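Annotated sample (chain length 249).
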Amino acid sequence: MLNRLPRHAAVILAIAALSTGAVACQTSADGARSSGRPNHAPSTPAPAPTTGVPKATPTAGSGGVTDGAKNSGNDTTGGSASSDDGPSNADTSTSGTSTVVDLASIARCHTGDLKAGFAAGGGAAPDMASTGQTRASVFFTNISRHTCSLIGFPGVDIVGNRATDGTWSLIRASTTPTKILLKPSDTTNFSITLLPTTAPAAEAFEPALVRITPPDEKTQFALKWPWGGSIVRQDGATHPGTFVNPVGS
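Output written by the structure step:
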């Protein structure tokens, strides 16, 4: 009996030691959890913050130049409406920006830059049977490769069909002219106010040819008069019923 007691005591002591170790391990684990720190790094890292400003998509600016073609009263087509086509208007634009065009820097249209003719569509032909004033329209088309400008009154000389008619240089209307910009292929016009008549030949002027000189130019276009009829002869009058209007009218 005396020999067995020490073995039982050793067993008891061993069990007690194991229990003490388990309690110590549990306490260590609980301490780690109570520290507030995770036991391992997160599996997915947090996204980095975005820097910079998002790019805006630019919008195209709008122009302010009026196309000469918009002033045309004939059936001859000209360029785009910039624009305007086009007066043409004082702005041209690129995406998101506008560039102001210096109108003074646009060279005038020379005779060689232009094509001229009588307009026939849209009521442009005169009513030579009228007892009141009527109008004939003449167009200018820019046939050059550059933009040019017109301002003022064309020179208009009407050559009579009879030797006694001679040549009648028309006076200008009192209308104030405006500057017209013509891009390549753009068209504008001007009108000639006429006072037709069916009076005897002595009181009438019978047009046969019309010489047109663009503003500030010396070279002319010679256009055959296509409408027939006669106008009241007033080539010596101060305020005749037949006269020329400015470009763009």
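Annotation: The two ends are 141 Å apart (CA to CA).
Annotation: The first strand starts at residue 82 and ends at 85.
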